[in-house]
Amino acid sequence: MPDWRAVRNEFPALQNWTYLNSATFGQLPRCASAAVNAHLASRDELACSNFLDWYNDADRIRADIGLLIHCEAGDIAFFPNAASGSSLLANAIDWQPGDQILTLEHEFPNQLYIAQAYPKAEAVIVPWPRFLESITSRTRLVMISTASYSTGQMPPCDQVAEACRKAGALFSLDGTQSLGALPFDVSTIQPDLFVVDGYKWLLSPNGATFAYIHPRVREWLRPNVFGWRSDKRWRQVNELHQGAPELKSEAERYEGGFLAFPALYGMGASVRFLLDLGPETIGARVLELAEYARQQLRHRTGAKLLADTNPLCNGPILAAHWPGVDSSELSAQLKQRRILTSARHGNLRVSTHFYNDEQDIDTLCSAIQELVR
Which of 70, 71, 226, 302 has the greatest number of beta carbons closer than 10 A? Predict the structure, then answer.
């Protein structure tokens, strides 16, 4: 087992804050900041003369992401944010009257907004108990997250994937709210698209996002954008191809232009950090801390938890409330005590990562006991 106290010391922000808000931002480990700084220093030293080598590094990062989610490096494309990646499938569909886009209630706005963005398509937004039966022959696209940003609900993605395959629907899955905290095997689920913005649980700088795009989808899915890297000969920078672009078969074809390398180097360092700790080991620690938090919030503060009525809410994102207590005001009062949480739709949201410890949760509960009595 890792020395979790030593691991915690790799996150400078934790020296000054009780941080229970990884569902908003993950904290950067020292190695990620060092990787960003090393890249920027190299730019100055070499005057960017080695810029093509940066893409070799990007390919190594793709390979590490492949190890993390169990796919090939060629299945990974980089995007500036999750919205860009999530829009890829929806923008490629020739929507017709009667077509449906299905998503869950309490989803992140990316999914909700995309579902309602196409005038010809009908948005179907339902709670989990009616979700699988809502996947029908009219469903063209299903868009959900591995975990709800507001409730913490984690739908069984394997069941959704199977229902989509039977109905002939495309399946777009957003893993931003779980990957880095919990293991994920894309080879088992096999969504058509799996997008992860790295700034939350993947402990990366803003601007570092990747998407897994299934090989069967790449056979027909055209890029949203075209640029100098769209043609498969883009590395021949002295004589860039002047005709119509010939696309690569790899997911890199969807990137089009230059990558956000400072953020990408930071994500690469964080992904390697997670791989070295071990995704299964991290997942066990995250869930152990989340269960401790649920127990303490119940027994010490009298919190009402969504997990008490919904067994799918037993992950690292906890939603709690207290009768007569304004959760937004409570979160603001906690912030004044340097305890960071969030308020989401009437609940106080507490999110535990592996760099937390039991003392963080005890500090939170002691403060809530004083504030809600």
Answer: 71
Going from the C-alpha of 218 to that of each of 58, 92, 94, 252, 253, the distances in angstroms are 20, 12, 16, 10, 9
Return the C-alpha torsion angle 324, 327, 332, 337, nearest 10. 80
Q: SS3 breakdown of the chain: % helix, strand, coil, rounded to 5? A: 45, 15, 40
Element counts in the chain: helices (H) and strands (E): 12, 13
Helix (H, G, I), strand (E, B) or coil at 87: helix
DSSP string of 244-295, one letter each residue: S----SSGGGGT-S---HHHHHHHHHHHHHHHHH-HHHHHHHHHHHHHHHHH
Q: What's the confidence (pLDDT) of residue 1?
A: 86
**Hey, CA dihedral for 155, 209, 64, 225, is it positive or negative?**
positive
Write the CA distances from 118 to 57, 97, 323, 360, integer angstroms: 38, 10, 40, 44
Residues comprising the chain, all counted: 373
Q: What is the pLDDT of residues 35-55, one digit of tens each?
A: 999 999 999 999 999 999 999
Q: Give the per-residue pLDDT at 247.
A: 96
Give the total number of structural domains in the chain: 2
Where residue 198 sits, what CATH number does that domain have?
3.40.640.10
What distance in Å separates the CA atoms of residue 272 and residue 32, rounded to the nearest whole number? 10
Share of the chain above pLDDT 90, in %: 99
User: Quick check: pTM over 0.85?
Assistant: yes
Query: If we measure between CA atoms, which residue out of 78, 76, 114 comes closest to residue 93?
Result: 114
Give the count of alpha carbons within 13 A of 74, CB side only.
Answer: 6
Tell which residue, 255, 144, 130, has the closest CA to residue 189. Answer: 144
Verify that 219 and 314 share a domain, yes or no.
no
Q: Give the domain-ending residue among 244, 276, 308.
A: 276
Q: What's the rounded Cα separation, in Å, for the pair 57 and 172?
A: 28
The parent domain of residue 363 ranges over 4-28+278-372
